[in-house]
C-alpha cells in the first residue's frame, strides 16, 4: 500500500523541473553555437570576390548541422552577389572544409550587356537645374553596349528620389523603372522614366508648445507661404529657432506621411528593379510613392510646416574658476534669462572677480524679426581696476544702446552710443570724466573647430569718438584693428599669428581715461613682460598709456603626442604717442599646449630681449584662442 507523501512529491517535481531546465539550457547552448563562414573564392578576383564574401558573412551554420545541407543557400548567395555586376548564368561549385570554411569555385560565364537605355524626366522637374545635373553626372546613359552594372541605375534613381523630397515634388512617380534581363540573349534593357508632377509650395506654419508669440516664430522662417519648397529652408528655420536660445528642444517638419526605410543588404546588392524575363510583369513598373511607402498622397500642392518646441529654462546659472598670469585667480558667476516675455526679450549678467579687476556686465536684448540676425540691445557694466604694475586705478560705469546685425557672410556689425563715467588715476594724473561715445564695430570669426581649430581667423574693427560738442569731457577719435589667424600644414603643424594696430587722435590726452588708452604686454600680447606694462612713461617713470598701439606675434606649434603640442614664438610691439614708435619690445620663447575638454591649456616661458629686470617670465592661460 502506498501512502501520499507530499514532501516526496514536491521533491520529484523539483527534480523534473531541474532536468527540464538543464535540457533547455543545453539546447539553447547548442543552438547558439554558430560560426560565420570564411570563404575561399576561386575563379574571380577583386570586387567580385569581395562581394561574394560579403554576401556570405551573415550566413551562420549551427554546430550540429550538416554542412552539405547549406550548399544550396551558399550557391544562391553567390549568384545574388554576381548579378549586380552583370553575371546571371554562372557555374558554381561549393565544397565545405568544415563548418567555418567553404571553398567556392566560380565560372562567371558570359556577362549580360545593355542593349538599350531609356532615361527621361517628365513634368516640372525637367526644367529644374539640379535634376539636369543629376542626369549629366550619371554614367547610366553611357552604358549601352557595356556590361550591365546595377549600381549606376540605383544611384541615379536614389538621387532623383532624394531631389524630389528635397525640392518638394511629393506627387512624383516612376512611370517606368526596371532593368529587364534576358539571360538567353545575354542582354538587358534599362528604362527609367521619372514623372515629377507639380512642385509643392510652402503652406502655413503651425506652432505648438511655444512660450514665445507664434507670430514672431513664423517671421523667423526663411520662406514665405507659397514659396517653392526646399528642405534646406526647413533645416535653416530649425537652426534659426535654435540660435534664438529660447527652446530646449525643437522639431521642424513638413507635414508628410512617415516614410519607411529598409536596412541595406550586405555588399553591393542587386537592384530591386532588376527583373529576369518570365517573372511577374506587374512588378516591373514601380510607383515613386510605393518606393517611399507613402500611405496617402497630399491633395493640395502646398505642404504645411509643423513646429514643435519645448521652452528653455527661464533662469540659468553658471559658475566658473580660472587662472592666468595676467590677473591671477578669477571667479565667474553668470545669471542668464534666455526669455523674459512672450516677445523673446532676454537678459544676461556676468560677474568676474580677480585680484586686480572686478567686473559686472549685463545685456538686455530685444530681438527683431530674425533674433539670430538682428536685435537692439542695452549693455551696462561696472569695472573696478587697481593695478600697481601699470600704475592704474580706475572705477568705470557705462551704459550703451545699440543695434546689431549678423550678416550671412559671418560679419557682425554694431552701431552704438555709450555713456561712460570714469574716476581714474593713471600715474600722476587724476580725473573724473563723463563721455558720450558713438561708435561702430565689425567682427568676424571663422573656425573649423571652436575648441582647438586647425583653420580659423578672427577680425575686429572698431571706430569710436567723443566730443564736447555733445557734452563729453574729452575730444578724441579712436580706432583699433585686430587680426588673428590659425593655419595648419598637415595634421601635426600649426601656425598662429596675431596683429593689432590702434590709433587715437586727441587734443587733450590727459582727459582720455585709462580704459581708452593703449597698453600692451602679457599673456595675449607681448609675452615676457607683465600685463599692460609696456606704454609711454612720464618724467617720474610712471606709465601713462599711449595714443597708438602696434603688436604682432608669430607662433609655430608641433604635435608631439596625442593632445600635447609644443610651441615656439616671437612677439613684438609697443604703445607710443608719436607714430612711428622709437622701438618695439621683442621677446621669444617656447611653450606647451594640452588640449583639454574646455580648450587648450597654455604654458609659455618667454625671454624679453630688451629688459634687464625680467630675464624670463612664465605665462599660463586656459581657454580657446578665438
TrEMBL record:
<feature type="domain" description="TamA POTRA">
    <location>
        <begin position="40"/>
        <end position="107"/>
    </location>
</feature>
<keyword id="KW-0732">Signal</keyword>
<protein>
    <recommendedName>
        <fullName>Translocation and assembly module subunit TamA</fullName>
    </recommendedName>
</protein>
<feature type="compositionally biased region" description="Basic and acidic residues">
    <location>
        <begin position="274"/>
        <end position="284"/>
    </location>
</feature>
<dbReference type="Pfam" id="PF01103">
    <property type="entry name" value="Omp85"/>
</dbReference>
<dbReference type="Pfam" id="PF17243">
    <property type="entry name" value="POTRA_TamA_1"/>
</dbReference>
<keyword id="KW-0998">Cell outer membrane</keyword>
<feature type="domain" description="Bacterial surface antigen (D15)">
    <location>
        <begin position="322"/>
        <end position="626"/>
    </location>
</feature>
<keyword id="KW-1134">Transmembrane beta strand</keyword>
<dbReference type="InterPro" id="IPR000184">
    <property type="entry name" value="Bac_surfAg_D15"/>
</dbReference>
<comment type="similarity">
    <text>Belongs to the TamA family.</text>
</comment>
<comment type="subunit">
    <text>Interacts with TamB to form the translocation and assembly module (TAM).</text>
</comment>
<keyword id="KW-0472">Membrane</keyword>
<keyword id="KW-0812">Transmembrane</keyword>
<dbReference type="InterPro" id="IPR035243">
    <property type="entry name" value="TamA_POTRA_Dom_1"/>
</dbReference>
<feature type="region of interest" description="Disordered">
    <location>
        <begin position="257"/>
        <end position="284"/>
    </location>
</feature>
<dbReference type="InterPro" id="IPR039910">
    <property type="entry name" value="D15-like"/>
</dbReference>
<feature type="signal peptide">
    <location>
        <begin position="1"/>
        <end position="33"/>
    </location>
</feature>
Amino acid at each position: 500500500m502506498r501512502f501520499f507523501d507530499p514532501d516526496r512529491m514536491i521533491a520529484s517535481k523539483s527534480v523534473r523541473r531541474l532536468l527540464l531546465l538543464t535540457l533547455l539550457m543545453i539546447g539553447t547552448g547548442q543552438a547558439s553555437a554558430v560560426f560565420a563562414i570564411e570563404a575561399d573564392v576561386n575563379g574571380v578576383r577583386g570586387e567580385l570576390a569581395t562581394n561574394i564574401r560579403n554576401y556570405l558573412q551573415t550566413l551562420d551554420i549551427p554546430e550540429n548541422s550538416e554542412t552539405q545541407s547549406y550548399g544550396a543557400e551558399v550557391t544562391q548567395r553567390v549568384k545574388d552577389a554576381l548579378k549586380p555586376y552583370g553575371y546571371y548564368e554562372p557555374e558554381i561549385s561549393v565544397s565545405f572544409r568544415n563548418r567555418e570554411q567553404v571553398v567556392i569555385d566560380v565560372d562567371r560565364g558570359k556577362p549580360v550587356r545593355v542593349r538599350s537605355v531609356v532615361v527621361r524626366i517628365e513634368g516640372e522637374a525637367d526644367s529644374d537645374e539640379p535634376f539636369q545635373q543629376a542626369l549629366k553626372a550619371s554614367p547610366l546613359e553611357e552604358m549601352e553596349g557595356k556590361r550591365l552594372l546595377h549600381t549606376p541605375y540605383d544611384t541615379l534613381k536614389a538621387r532623383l528620389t532624394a531631389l524630389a523630397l528635397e525640392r518638394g515634388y511629393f506627387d512624383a512617380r516612376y512611370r517606368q523603372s526596371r532593368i529587364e534581363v534576358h539571360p538567353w540573349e545575354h542582354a538587358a534593357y534599362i528604362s527609367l522614366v521619372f514623372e515629377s508632377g507639380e512642385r509643392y509650395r510652402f503652406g502655413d506654419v503651425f506652432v505648438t508648445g511655444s512660450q514665445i508669440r507664434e507670430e514672431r516664430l513664423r517671421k523667423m522662417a526663411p520662406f514665405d507661404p507659397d514659396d517653392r519648397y526646399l528642405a534646406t529652408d526647413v533645416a535653416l528655420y530649425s537652426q534659426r529657432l535654435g540660435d534664438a536660445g529660447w527652446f530646449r528642444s525643437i522639431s521642424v517638419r513638413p507635414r508628410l506621411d512617415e516614410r519607411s526605410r529598409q536596412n541595406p543588404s550586405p555588399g553591393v546588392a542587386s537592384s530591386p528593379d532588376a527583373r529576369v524575363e518570365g517573372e511577374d510583369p506587374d512588378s516591373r513598373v514601380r510607383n515613386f510613392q510605393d518606393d517611399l511607402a507613402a500611405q496617402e498622397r497630399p491633395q493640395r500642392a502646398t505642404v504645411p510646416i509643423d513646429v514643435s518646441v519645448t521652452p528653455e529654462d527661464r533662469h540659468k546659472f553658471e559658475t566658473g574658476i580660472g587662472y592666468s598670469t595676467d590677473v591671477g585667480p578669477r571667479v565667474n558667476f553668470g545669471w542668464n534669462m534666455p526669455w523674459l516675455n512672450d516677445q523673446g526679450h532676454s537678459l544676461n549678467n556676468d560677474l568676474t572677480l580677480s585680484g586686480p579687476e572686478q567686473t559686472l556686465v549685463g545685456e538686455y536684448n530685444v530681438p527683431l524679426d530674425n533674433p539670430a540676425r538682428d536685435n537692439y540691445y542695452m549693455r551696462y557694466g561696472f569695472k573696478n581696476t587697481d593695478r600697481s604694475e601699470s600704475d592704474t586705478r580706475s572705477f568705470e560705469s557705462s551704459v550703451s544702446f545699440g543695434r546689431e546685425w549678423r550678416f550671412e557672410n559671418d560679419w557682425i556689425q554694431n552701431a552704438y552710443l555709450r555713456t561712460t563715467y570714469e574716476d581714474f588715476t593713471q600715474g600722476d594724473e587724476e580725473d573724473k570724466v563723463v563721455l558720450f561715445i558713438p561708435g561702430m564695430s565689425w567682427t568676424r570669426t571663422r573656425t573649423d573647430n571652436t575648441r582647438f581649430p586647425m583653420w580659423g581667423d578672427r577680425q575686429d574693427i572698431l571706430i569710436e569718438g567723443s566730443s564736447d560738442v555733445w557734452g563729453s569731457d574729452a575730444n578724441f577719435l579712436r580706432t583699433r584693428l585686430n587680426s588673428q589667424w590659425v593655419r595648419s600644414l598637415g595634421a601635426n603643424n600649426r601656425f598662429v599669428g596675431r596683429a593689432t594696430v590702434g590709433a587715437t587722435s586727441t587734443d587733450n590726452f590727459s582727459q582720455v581715461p585709462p580704459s581708452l588708452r593703449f597698453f600692451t604686454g602679457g599673456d595675449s600680447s607681448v609675452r615676457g613682460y607683465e600685463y599692460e606694462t609696456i606704454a609711454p612713461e612720464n618724467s617720474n617713470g610712471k606709465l601713462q598709456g599711449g595714443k597708438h598701439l602696434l603688436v604682432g606675434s608669430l607662433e609655430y606649434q608641433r604635435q608631439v603626442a596625442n593632445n600635447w603640442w609644443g610651441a615656439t614664438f616671437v612677439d613684438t610691439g609697443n604703445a607710443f604717442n608719436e607714430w612711428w614708435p622709437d622701438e618695439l619690445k621683442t621677446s621669444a620663447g617656447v611653450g606647451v599646449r594640452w588640449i583639454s575638454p574646455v580648450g587648450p591649456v597654455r604654458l609659455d616661458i618667454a625671454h624679453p630681449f630688451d629688459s634687464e629686470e625680467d630675464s624670463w617670465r612664465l605665462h599660463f592661460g586656459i581657454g580657446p584662442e578665438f
